[in-house]
Amino acid sequence: MHRALSFAHAVRALQQARCLSPEVCYRILHWRSLRCSGAASTHVPRAAGGFQSAVEDARGLGTPAQAAATAQPQLPLCERQAQHAVPLIDLLAWHETALLQVKDVGDSWAQQDDGPSAEDLRTELGWLLDDSLAAWSHNGGDWRGVSWQQLERDLRQQTFKDSAGQYRVQLREPLESLAAIWEQRLRHRHPLQYLTSTAFWRDIVLSVGPGVLIPRPETELMIDLVQEAVAASPLLAAGTWADLGTGSGALAVGVARALPQAPKVYAVDLSPVPLAYAAFNAQRLGVADRVTPVQGSWLEPLEAAGVRQLAGLVSNPPYIPSTEMPGLQAEVGRHEPHLALHGGEGLGIDCLLPICTGAARRLQPGGFLALETAGGEQARYIAELLSHMRCSALNGAAAGLAGVGVCTGSSGSWPGGGAGPSPGEQLAFEDVRVRKDLRGVDRFVTASRAAVPVDPDSDS
């Protein structure tokens, strides 16, 4: 009897605080009790579309490498078929419970490692609900499309204060699965993108999962740089391009969509897991006939396959210096693949260097190079390196196969101090520029392959 009275008092207190109906408040307290007993996070039904890989395996994830070994591409949550109908009041009750979980976390992650704040987590919760919610129905009527933003707006206006029990909503995954996702997000700081197989990037949605670098908003500007280069030199649009270190295939797919005339875009990665995602995303987004995943290190597999020249080369390679790896946010350092993050000792340019020299060998005269870097000193170093890289002058037919060297200066520590090209050599790149990202950071380095003059003594 005492327990029943306490529960009734709790319902009334919650009703007064949140302006919700008693039925909604009852379900909120029900979700709280499940959370305390662990029931809400231990029962995860297998959902349609292979969803269990993202949720059930999350509880057993070990190292990022172990996770990557079993990862399989899944359809993004927002694209799955909506076939799970639940009362709206159940969804609202779970939403309130999830907000209480966020309150428990607060801003502790931001204080620990500059991770998400409480406000960031509330935003993520909105994303999860928006990707999950498809439609609603009133009193058994027809299903009509609805967004979580619309529901939130109506909630703020107390539209459902007395009639929430008359609505049902269609979800793309069972409500229990959404609760399990959120538990994993907060308990282990798994990236939400992995748990939902969803990364919004430019105007597309990419499938991502453990073992695949999550594409960042900054990288979206790389496609703008490609379009700018093609506008200045239209012939580049009809050539072959390559994306080195493709990950999810974001840049390869982005280039293929931006340049419909390009016959082929090679998506190169050392690991088979990202290549599976790149192929899956290319197929989903309608460019599989022109995006070719290739396994190997940077340009090596293309050279082995006899690819002689490229019109353009883009890359977002690993560039984080060793000294900065321990300080990464938990979402990144614990869960994203270190192979796609770690750039090596010093400036962290172990991967950038072979890409630069490979670009000098394989880009056609006038070919475009775009690199993402850590910014700052690293970006300036790469720009200086490209500005002083030199190659042998060959006849036009052999351009792009020239021997490549770098002016390193007397100390060997900075590329800008060496002498100019010696007889028979010329600078490999021109129009080398450092470009800013959306936050004003010197993030990108772009360049054009210099035209190799025809050797006057050549018979060709």
Q: TL;DR?
A:
With 460 residues, this protein is an alpha/beta fold. Helices cover 40% and strands 18% of the residues.
Task: Write up what this structure looks like.
Helices cover 40% and strands 18% of the residues. The chain has 460 residues and is of the alpha/beta class. It has a seven-stranded mixed β-sheet, sandwiched between helices. Strands 1-4-2-3 form a four-stranded antiparallel β-sheet. It has a three-stranded antiparallel β-sheet with strand order 15-14-16. α6 (88-105) packs antiparallel against α8 and α12 (221-232) runs parallel beside α13 (250-258). The longest helix is centred in the N-terminal third of the chain and has 18 residues, at 88-105. The chain is elongated, with a radius of gyration of 27 Å.
Return residue spans where pLDDT drops below 50 for at least 5 consecutive residues.
1-11, 34-70, 393-403, 406-414, 453-460
What is the average per-residue confidence, as pLDDT, rounded to a whole number?
Answer: 82
- Strand percentage, roughly? 15-25%
Structural class by sheet pairing and helices:
alpha/beta
Q: What does the radius of gyration come to?
A: 27 Å
Shape: elongated
Number of helices: 18
Strand order of the largest sheet: 9-8-7-10-13-18-17
Distance between the termini: 100 Å
Q: Could you estimate the helical fraction of the residues in percent?
A: 25-40%
For the sheet with most strands, the description reads: 7 strands, mixed
The count of DSSP E runs of length 2 or more, i.e. the number of strands, is: 18
